[in-house]
Write the structure tokens for this entry.
Amino acid sequence: MMFSKMRERITILRVEKADDGYGGYNTNWQDYMTVWAAVKMISGTELFRVGARLTVKRIECTVRYRDVIDETMKVRWRGELYNILSIIPDERRNYMTLQCEKAVGENE
């Protein structure tokens, strides 16, 4: 992967817990880092489950290797949030590919 192919900006988000004042906590997604990436649309499918239409989008984001990114985080690309399904580093740990998915229901 050449650095010149990393033309898109993506934001990595992580969940942060805040005390709710009643002994519990609230969770919020917060921007963690913004990085350059090569983003590729992998697939888009439409499913029907229990009478509802569900659209699933899959993308791959290749970024410079960072050991602080994991599967509990999300990716924001072009205003849409994607769950990170898996992370595949290259052999030399120069790059990593984030396989991401977003599911959107008809009523969302």
Q: What stands out?
A: The two ends are 36 Å apart (CA to CA).
